[in-house]
Every structure is written in structure tokens, then in C-alpha cells.
Amino acid sequence: MAKYLAQIVVMGAQVVGRAFAKALRQEYAASQAAAQARGRSGQQSAAASSISGMSLQEAQQILNITTLTPEEIQDNYEHLFKVNDKAVGGSFYIQSKVVRAKERLDEELSIQTQDSQQKQRNTPET
């Protein structure tokens, strides 16, 4: 009886192991396909997120930005920076998050500008 129970446990572990390995391979393939789909700008954006330690979405949430326009970024940055100034009872931590968010969004704007310029260069004029 114990022998059969041990065989069932071993076979169950093998099935679970194979399923896990297959799921892992599929996830790896999907992530590779997504990385290729994002292309160069996606890689640059991921690098910027890695360097700044803040994702694009997080930076947009901090500055309450819906569209990446330099004017909106600057206006929201200035307001939040002043409101969180330590001299008026604000938080230095939040103020530093606001600065990092602006840096991250400025980097993203720079990446988008470079991409659009490169696309214009690569597009043949008719």
C-alpha cells in the first residue's frame, strides 16, 4: 500500500513539475515577444525606469499627469514642489518623489522625441 502511495506522489510531482516547466517556457517566450514588439524605445524606457527607480506610470501618478506634455509636467511639478516645501510644513520625502517623477517624465519625453526624429529620418519623402 505504501509503495503505491509513494508512486502516486512521485507521479503527481512529475506532472506538476512538467506543467511548471512548460508554463515557465511559455512565459519566457511571451516576454521575449513583448520585448521585441516594444522595440528600441521600449528598451530605452525600461532602462530609464531602471536608472531612475521609478516606472513611467508611477511618475505620471505622482505628478497627476495624463498626457506627456512639457507644459503640464512643468505646471504640476512647480505646484507640487511648492506645496511640499519644508518651509511651509511640507514633506521633504514627497518633494523628492516629485523631483524624481519629473526627471523620469522628462527622460520619457526625450526618448519619444528621439524616436519621432529617427522615424522622420527613416521615412522617405515623396
What does this protein look like?
There is one protein chain. By secondary structure, the protein is mainly alpha-helical. It has helices at residues 2-52, 56-63, 70-83, 92-122. The chain starts with a helix and ends with a helix.
SSE layout and pairings?
Blueprint: H1 2-52, H2 56-63, H3 70-83, H4 92-122
Helix pairs in contact: 1-4, 2-4, 3-4
Defining traits:
single chain; mainly alpha; 4 helices
- List the helices and strands in order: HHHH
Major sheet: none
Proportion of residues in helical segments = over 70%
Average of per-residue pLDDT values: 83
Radius of gyration: 24 Å
Question: Per DSSP, what share of the residues sits in E-state strands of 2 or more residues?
Answer: under 5%
Distance between the termini: 81 Å
Shape: elongated
Poorly predicted ranges (pLDDT <50, ≥5 residues)? none
Please report the total strand number as a whole number.
0
What structural category arises from helix and sheet content?
mainly alpha
Number of helices: 4
Quick summary:
With 126 residues, the protein is mainly α. It is built from four helices and no strands.
